[in-house]
Write a structure and sequence with these properties.
27% strand, five-stranded mixed beta sheet, 3 helices, globular
């Protein structure tokens, strides 16, 4: 079964998704945030992402949800991130843009 056959691509145009990448029958959503505080990055990006995914019933098509920020997580932020991932049961990833490349920073 093609997981994206019920994916409403027209609805995507009504959102400001930073990057949406379709790979075969799965979708990756990327939200980029320029803030200098990890909690602010997560708060802003996660609110948008949850709306995109759950308001439109896209959860079956989403393989990865990637938040990209400019700063790395410290230990307390990693614990917070882990709690969110466990609570939400979402395929969340946090990556850091260092000005040259993007590095994954999942705990």
């Amino acid at each position: 079964m093609n997981m994206t056959e019920n994916f409403n691509w027209k609805n995507i145009q009504s959102y400001d998704i930073d990057i949406l990448r379709k790979i075969d029958d799965k979708v990756h959503i990327y939200e980029l945030k320029p803030y200098e505080n990890v909690k602010s990055i997560i708060r802003e990006a996660l609110g948008q992402i949850l709306e995109y995914v759950y308001f439109n019933d896209w959860e079956q098509s989403i393989e990865k949800i990637i938040i990209i920020g400019k700063v790395s997580m410290d230990d307390s932020e990693k614990r917070y991130w882990d709690k969110l991932k466990t609570l939400l049961h979402c395929p969340l990833e946090y990556h850091v843009w260092d000005g040259k490349k993007i590095n994954e920073q999942n705990s």
